[in-house]
Amino acid sequence: MEEKIRGLEMQVESLVEFRKGFEQIMEQRHEVSEGKSSDLQMEAGLGNSEGRLGEESGQWKHVTKRTRQRKRRASEGEIELQNRFAELENEEGAQQVVTEGDRARKKRRAVSPIGKGEELMEITPNMSPRRIQDGLKRITRENGNGTNLQPEGTGDRLENSTVTRKRQVYVIGDSLLRRIDRPVTRADPENRRVCCLPGAKIRDVDLRLKRILKGAGKNPLIILHVGTNDTARFSLESIKGDYARLGRTLKEIEAQVIFSGILPVPREGQQRCDKIMTINRWLRQWCYKEGFGMYGHWEAFMDRGQFSRDGLHLSREGNRLLGWRLAQLIKRALN
Prior knowledge:
By secondary structure, this protein is of the alpha/beta class. The protein has ten helices and five strands.
């Protein structure tokens, strides 16, 4: 940090010297212009005094036409040279000095150890010392807050280092996964995803699974919440067959899989609830046999207020509860 500050101080000193040199050039230019005007005034004063002396002495001086024209042309030529070419030379000299100052500043920027620090504060010749000090304080403050002002290619870095990617987490299921993305993805938004497929059945998830998990990386964590829509239309044997096909697809992917148990449906009668409980018991045994995980929610969703008016989808309170439970499941599975 001290080396970076010293580098900035050196730049400030060089800019102050450049500014002093520029001001000296401008002062010389002003003195030259004042000296020329004083010379003209002296010449005019001498001419007037000579005229007065001639008049006082009473002597006559013979002046021809040719002599007057020659003097007039000489004086006009001197005035043109003084007013035109002298100013042009001074401007070219000032421009040359400014160009050399820009070249020196660029050279110092290329050699300066600050590197990225100059991007944070651009120093110009017209910048006041107070403004430069404020810029130095701002760069120091940002560096203290964690901003890296060290140039690229330096620092302690391991050769042939590889960036390790975190495990990807996918929560896939039917419309009961609505509005649970915040509690699930809050801990790691870049590596956690919630894929809600409204009205999806087990077969639909099986067909879309490989497309959803494209680019998931090595050994992702997959949580599947599906089966509610199947219990309303298919028999137990058909549902078991669909789970078996989905399991074979999951084994081809080589991932850590956890099945989320089917939630109760309060709007239906006791017959539908008995069917769902039977599927959940079979699903737990099948997951244990196939090497998958099983996480049930039956007892946590016995309250009717956790469901919406249709008795099928969850209310906001139910969405928060399901999202929190799945987030805790992901935390335990990853650890």
